[in-house]
Structures are given as structure tokens and as C-alpha cells.
Please model this.
Amino acid sequence: MTLRVWDLAHGRSGDKGDICNIGLIARSDEAYKILCQQVTSERLQDHFGELIKGDVDRYELPNINALNFVCKGALDGGGTLSLRSDHLGKVMYTWLLRMELDDE
Amino acid sequence: MKSVKLGTGLAFWGDSLRPAIDMVERADIQYLCCDHLAELTMSILSKQKSRKPDLGYTTDIIPFLRGVLPRCHERGIKIISNSGGSNPEACAEKVIELCRELGFHGMKVATVTGDDIMDRIDDLLEEGIELANIDTGQQLSDIRDKVTQANVYIGCDGIVEALEQGADIVICGRVTDAALYLGPMRHELGWAADDWQSLGAGTGVAHCIECGGQASGGLYSGGWQDMNSLSSLGYPVTEVFENGEATLSKTPQTGGAVTVGTVSEQLVYEVLDPANYLTADVVSDVSQIKLDQVGPDQVHIHNVKGKPAPETLKVNMGYRAGFVGEAQFTYTWPDAVKKAKAGLAFLNERLEQVDFQSTHTRVEYLGHNSMWGPEVSDPPEDPELEELVVRFAARCPTKEEAQKVFTESVPLYNNGPAGASGIGTRPPIKELYGIWPCLIPRELITIKTTVTEVTA
Model:
């Protein structure tokens, strides 16, 4: 069975200008460790490809087992200008949940 | 320990009124805090005000107050709202009229203004305040003639002042979302304006609850199947203590749930660097936040820190950025995918024939890749596909150009490849507004609070 981010975490995403932030909340302490190791900014950027045009910064919230990814240039010019149906990035996190992880 | 009990009434313009009505009936609260504004809302409101000088506020405040005010009046619950939008004075006037109509004489209605700097832009530029875009570095001169609105995100000082003067209803313009909650915290708990630790903690709590039902089970992805009665979702009811800690719960006998999971999801919503959550009042550090389930639908929030407020305040300007034209059409089996592509080619050729001008176009296949688009996943290739919906959108310099998109899609009904349907009726053309985020030194902003007593 392929391990996906969804097996280890749930999430939420939203907008701030042309930035989309994606929060992941690990389902356990163990899951958080794996996410910290494997869900790097670089890997996220590869997974989203051209959809995220700028840099991705990752922040940790260790006491609630959460990671926050700040993705710049991710909303086609920003929520008010974007031609995307998901102009506010409400479901961006679900694409991250699909990302496959290395089985350890 | 001293505490204050805050209820979340509304989380956006157009939000349901029922959670607030349930709350004022059944929850133990002293304040009902209501956020009506989003980035685009201010542009829409300023446009309305420019057409009619007594508009420019979020009109939902009137039916909202009609629903909750009788119980709030009876129970002494105060209401804090940013429904003033671009026109807090006009909003307050309508609110006063409503109080009078309901017979609530003696009620005090406050307005908080000072966030609108539209008329000061050129003076500010002359004084050397650049107002450059903090995301892109661009100079304001690039869009100066297209700016329609400029509002500073102001903090809670005006709300605190209004409450000190005995206001029952506080109507603000573009205060920060957090200020709607931090104002009553400061007023009730006696926090000083430079008590960074308490303000930081309070702001972290405010962030958890300002989006209403999103903290109490709405949108919850960690286990939506187990959420009961989402259609009767209860909004957050939060007791904030003097030491900055808080217990988040919700209106009794409502749907949804308050768990560490639901609050965690909301905590990471629309946050950039969690150690530096910037607001006008304080820099809040939620990076080490702790959440404990202390009872059914009760989460205790603690370990949030604060740092001194930034020396600059954030300004959001809105500027005219063209129009969007859209068309949508559906093809069915057999060869739905091939026909969809032929339909798109048909539309593109027709647009070329009418010398269509656009700066940006987008194609999405609904049900397949509309949420992420071609950058992430291709349209399907399955020849057995039952149906395929195509959405074509374009950003155009003028309304006339934007209208061409639908106009040139209509012939798909009769003249295009076989099996087109679902074209629909002509959609209204939407004007686009860009958001220009920039900074202004805080000493250049003066907040004004006015309190008016409702008379017969």
C-alpha cells in the first residue's frame, strides 16, 4: 500500500493575497516525525509543480503536531484576481494530502 | 481569576444568522463579536459608496441586529462589529434607526473611524511615505490612477475607548479581525496597550475563533464523517482569562464539535509565520501553542506569547484590474473529451475573429481538474467518459471584451461539435479588483471614536 500524507495528517488551506498557506495536522506524534522528515518545502514544491510560482516556507508548531507551509505566488495573482475556480485556495491542502511518502 | 466571555456572531458578510440567534438564546456570553470583512469586501463596499453616499457598509448587519438585539438588550450583551466597512457613519445611523424602531432608547452606539486614508494618498506620497507593494516591491505609481479604496488595518484602541464610554454596539470600519475580540478583552481584563504578553495571547485566541464555525467542526477534514448536525453548527463561545489563557467551547445543543483537532485546523488557517502573527496591536507568537481537551466540546488554549506591536500598520488598497469573462459548456459520450477540445478550439477561433483582447486565460475541466488546473493534472483521456464540463475564463481590459467570451460561446449550441449543452444564460460580468498591500508608520494614523445615545 502506498503511504500518503492523508494517512498521517489532516489539513486546511487559505489565502492571503497571492499566498496560499497550507496547514497539516499530524494524527499522532509518530506521524508528525515522519511529516517533519519527509514533507519538506522542496518536496511540496515538486508535488504542486507550476501551480506554485514562488518560494515555499515551512514552519513548525510542535505542541500541536502541525506544519504550516506558506506558498508564494500560488493563487494565480491573488484571491481577488485569480481566474481559478478555487481562487481562495480552499482545497489546495487536499492536493498535498494526496502526495505519496516513502514507506519506512 | 477575572475572565470575559466572548461569542463569535458572524465570520463573513453573508454568514448565517442562526448561530448567533442560538447563541444569544442559550450561551453564557457578554460580547457578540462579528467580522464582516474580507480583502475583496472593502473594494465592493467602496464601489457601492461611490454610487450612493449612504451605502458602503455590509447591509447584513441590519437583519442580524433585528434577530439578536432584543435578547442582547435584555441580557446586556454588547455587540462589536466591523460592518461599517467603507462607511461606518452611515452604518451607525442605520443601526441607531433600528434601535429607535425597536424602542431601545438609551442604548449607546459607537463608531470607530480613522482607517480610511483614500483622501490622504497623495499627501502621504509627498511626505515620502512610499506605499510600495510589500509583496512585489512595485511602486504605487504603477496603479495610482486605478486605486478605488485605501484602508489601514487598525487595532483595538477605538473599540476599548468605545466600551469605556459605555457603548452597547460598536461599529467599526477596517479594524483587524482580532481587534473585534481583543477590544473587549482589554476592556474587561484591564490589559494595558503595551502588555505584549497578554495582547499576544489574546490575539492567538482571537485568531482561533474569528472564523466562526471553522473552529467548531465546520470544514473539519480530520473526521467530517463523525461531525453531527453540521447544518445546525454552533459557533465558538470562549472564556478568556486574565492570564491570557482561554477555554473555547460552543453554544449548547448545537451541531459540530470543539476538539483539539478542530481548533488545530483553524489555528493554521491563513497564518504565515506562526511565531510572528502580525497585527496592529501586537505580534502574536502561536508557534508553541498548547491545546488541551478539558471536557466535551471544550478546548483549553495556552502557551501563546506576545512581542511588541510593529511600528508600521498594514494598508490594503483596492485597484481596478479589468474584468473577467466566462463561458462553460458540457459534452457527453461518445468522444466527450475530443469534442470538448474541439469546442474549445471553436471558441478560441471565434474569439480571434472578433479581435478578442485578454491578458490571461484559463481552461478547467470541472469534475476533473477545476480546483488545481492544468498545472497539476491533465484533462482525462478516457473515450468512455460520460460527460465533460469545460470552463473557460479570461481576464480582459474592458467590460466589452469580457462580454465576448460568453457571446462567442453561444454558437456552440447550434454550430459547434455534436452534443453541446449546459451553456446556461449570460453571466454578469465581474469587475476585478487587485489588492495592494503596503505599510504606513503607525503615528500617522489617528483613530476616532464617537458614541451616540439612542433617543426617542
Remarks:
- The mean pLDDT of chain B is 96.
- The longest helix of chain B spans residues 336-353.
